[in-house]
Write a structure and sequence with these properties.
It holds the Pfam family McrBC. InterPro entries: McrC (IPR019292). By secondary structure, this protein is α+β, with helices and mostly antiparallel strands. The chain has 11 helices and 20 strands. It has helices at about 20-25, 35-40, 80-90, 110-130, 150-155, 175-190, 200-210, 235-250, 275-290, 345-355, 400-420, and strands at about 5-10, 15-20, 40-45, 50-55, 60-65, 70-75, 95-105, 135-140, 165-175, 255-260, 265-270, 270-275, 295-300, 305, 315, 320-325, 330-335, 360-365, 375-380, 385-390. It has a 6-stranded mixed β-sheet with strand order 13-16-17-18-20-19, with helices on both faces. Strands 1-6-5-12 form a 4-stranded mixed β-sheet. The radius of gyration is 29 Å and the shape is elongated.
Amino acid sequence: MTAAPRVIEIQERGFQHFPRSDLFDSLGRSLVFADTRSLNAIEIKDISEGARLMALGLIGYLPLTSAITLNITPKFPIQNLWTMLEVGGESYANILPVVRRYQTSANPAPIQMLARSFCFYLRATLSAGFERSYYAREQAGYYKPRIEFGPTINQYMSRGNPVETVSSVFEFGLNSPVNRVVKAACLRIARLIPPGKDWEDERRCILLALDTLRRVEEREPSAVDFELGQSVSLRLREMYSGMLRVYQLLLTGGGIAFTFEPAGKELPSFLFNLDDIFERFIRQTFVRAMREHGVTVLDGNKHQGRLFEDNKTYPTKSDLVFRRSKKEIIGLGEVKYKPRIKEADRYQIISHVTAASAPLGVLFSPVNEGESQRLERLGKLPTGAQIYHYRIDIRGDIVAAQNRMVRDVHSILPTVVSAIA
């Protein structure tokens, strides 16, 4: 018998135990969706009591089987996640074809996330076709049914014109109140979409919608207009309600949290890779802050070095490269979103620092619960290079944590450079 559909909330890097019957059929075949397995978002191990599932570095609303959905939440406040996404330049490209309910939050949702959500619903609307309906249009001039006697008397008959009238004409087409609001939303979203190939599909989607609605008069919504999605035909109701819901969040500054709430706001399901988010957050924090000190911070995954001097077979891909000039590397950084730094991580930073003849190497990781933010010196290499481990607190005031991290790391850069010199 198939289990009743249910949503199970689990923290990232957290564990959940399941009976074997929840994840495997009677023949031992996995019931977990193939698309979910391909994401490498979970790890399942057999144990004596059944199966133990561990959520890895992804957060979001993840269908597990036909009967179970995981809602993977971060271990830190949602507002800190939005800050990390904004600083790191998240493109919100990892969107699933699944609609979920988010808990309402007082903190505004990221604008680019709302833009992706709007285009998610708009794309489905373009595929199904925009709503066409009868709507009233007021026309002044020669008679057309039906006559509006009050305006006709005021504008024409009272001025000695017995021929012309003010009429209400009902027409069938796209220029309905709900489509006017949708066009206004498209125009606003179009101004928010950033340049670049990552957003090419969204730009094309908006342009196609605006071309379809070119004869529609855009109108900014009032409070009651956000409920117009309920007035369209049943086959389009979910799409229109979704577009208006996103537009309302954009205009009013409303927010969402990753906690599942049965009566919460419906939006598309996004998946976020915390390993990538944390790495970009650390890098971009230094990119912005170090510029005024004459230090350039690069992505070593794009600006690769060599592990060996006599060949390019094994490139080095440090997460952060600190440079004062094109050839003067003053430090390297490796970012690890994990609770404990392993020996392989230390060997990685040591090999990269040695290969680059850099005077400094820093490992970055988040603090664990109960720990405080700090810079720890690990040791000195035979080459004279210093190796450090920096733990940053992303559970509290993340802006203060950023500023402190920049000050702490900047304080060791000149010391290391002068020591090598």
